């Protein structure tokens, strides 16, 4: 049976301020120093990554990612101190949530079918 994983999303109204995908994007930007490199590493278009970054920057009280204009080495992007704090707090929340629901996930695992997964609605 596949391992069950809880997913945390922080909503502001109906808008996801941050969730697993946005956190992964922030982590990739921090690691690679570029939105385009992060997008490539995650298998998404640059446009999609840029829209997610814009959404993150609009959701929080200040920008979480700042872009750097080109020079000899070209441009790039990095997390702001707020962005680093957002990512750190989100990852801490994920860890605490996973520990808190671990007993329930073991119960769910026993209740789920094993074997082939089929798509709902087919």
Q: What is the approximate shape?
A: elongated
Which strand order spans the largest sheet, edge to edge or round the barrel?
Answer: 1-2
Major sheet characteristics: 2 strands, antiparallel
Examine the coordinates and then state which fold CATH places here, giving the name of the CATH topology: Arc Repressor Mutant, subunit A
* CATH class assignment: Mainly Alpha
The name of the CATH superfamily reads Winged helix-like DNA-binding domain superfamily/Winged helix DNA-binding domain
Count of helix runs? 4
For the secondary structure, the number of strands is: 4
Question: Number of domains in the coordinates?
Answer: 1
* H/E series: EEHHHEEH
Overall pLDDT: 90
- Helix content estimate: 40-55%
Looking at how many chains there are and whether they match, the oligomeric state comes to: single chain
Question: Cα-atom Rg, whole angstroms?
Answer: 18 Å
| Percent of residues in β-strands | 5-15%
Structure classification: alpha+beta
**What is the straight-line distance between the termini?**
22 Å
CATH architecture: Orthogonal Bundle
Low-confidence stretches: none
């Amino acid at each position: 049976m596949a391992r069950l994983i809880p997913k945390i999303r922080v909503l502001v109204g109906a808008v996801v301020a941050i969730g697993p995908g946005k956190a992964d994007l922030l982590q990739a930007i921090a690691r690679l120093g570029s939105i385009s490199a992060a997008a490539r590493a995650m298998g998404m278009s640059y446009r999609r990554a840029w829209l997610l970054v814009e959404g993150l920057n609009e959701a929080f009280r200040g920008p979480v990612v700042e872009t750097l204009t080109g020079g000899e080495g070209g441009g790039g992007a990095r997390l702001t101190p707020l962005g680093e704090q957002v990512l750190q707090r989100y990852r801490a929340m994920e860890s605490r949530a996973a520990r808190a629901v671990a007993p329930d996930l073991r119960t769910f695992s026993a209740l789920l079918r094993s074997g082939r997964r089929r798509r709902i609605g087919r």
